[in-house]
Task: structure prediction
Amino acid sequence: MKKHLLFLGPPGAGKGTQAAIISKTNSYLHLSTGELLRKEIDSNTELGNQVKDIMNRGELVKDQLVLEIVKKNLCTDNKGWILDGYPRNLSQINSLNQVLLNINQPLEIVFYLDIPEEVLIKRLLMRGRKDDNEETIKTRLNIYKETTEPLIEYYKSLSLLQYINADGDLKTVSADIKQKMA
Ligand code: AP5
Result:
């Protein structure tokens, strides 16, 4: 049975890495809003130019722009999918709920990847993406704590949340996710 999953957690928790592993093994669609936005920037599109500075500062792109991307890319056929990096605030939750209602594909599991702050900062500084510098990481973390972290309680209240200790090696974290997906 193909599942509809969401990976939630702070920057650097390994959402993208684990979503890529799980989507490959299961032939799921991996929908990362960050990745799709970076592609727009690399392709020099109008949208890319609109969001470039915002992303480089580590701030959130406007809800409506991200929603368009999600609507355009979320497949409506009978394929499993993983949302990575969306939703990130309560307004995005409401939009997502509406989209999922329209396509009749409810979320089944929300994986919360938890990791100590010092570990994620080390990981991000080592990766060195354009938004992986100390100042931007601080902004991303503050925004995460203020606007995204409350989503954990929301999904917990719907009994959709699965806790993942993301402070382990890749294989251990993947194995935990796979076991909780079964
Ligand atoms: P996005 O791309 O989503 O960035 P993020 O949320 O900050 O997440 P990261 O990609 O940094 O972390 P991750 O948890 O995916 O970890 P990863 O697997 O990469 O968003 C970027 C920007 O786009 C936002 O700041 C915003 O501007 C905009 N945006 C995106 N979505 C938006 C939305 N919904 N609304 C508004 N704006 C939006 O791993 C990190 C590093 O750790 C890698 O080098 C990896 O190799 C390493 N690693 C992973 N797992 C392990 C492990 N187990 N052990 C050791 N190293 C590991």
Summary: The mean pLDDT is 96. The pocket of BIS(adenosine)-5'-pentaphosphate is lined by residues 9, 11-17, 33-34, 37, 54-55, 58-61, 66, 85-86, 88, 92, 123-124, 127, 131, 140, 169-170, 173 (CB under 6 Å). The two ends are 10 Å apart (CA to CA). The first helix runs from residue 15 to 26.
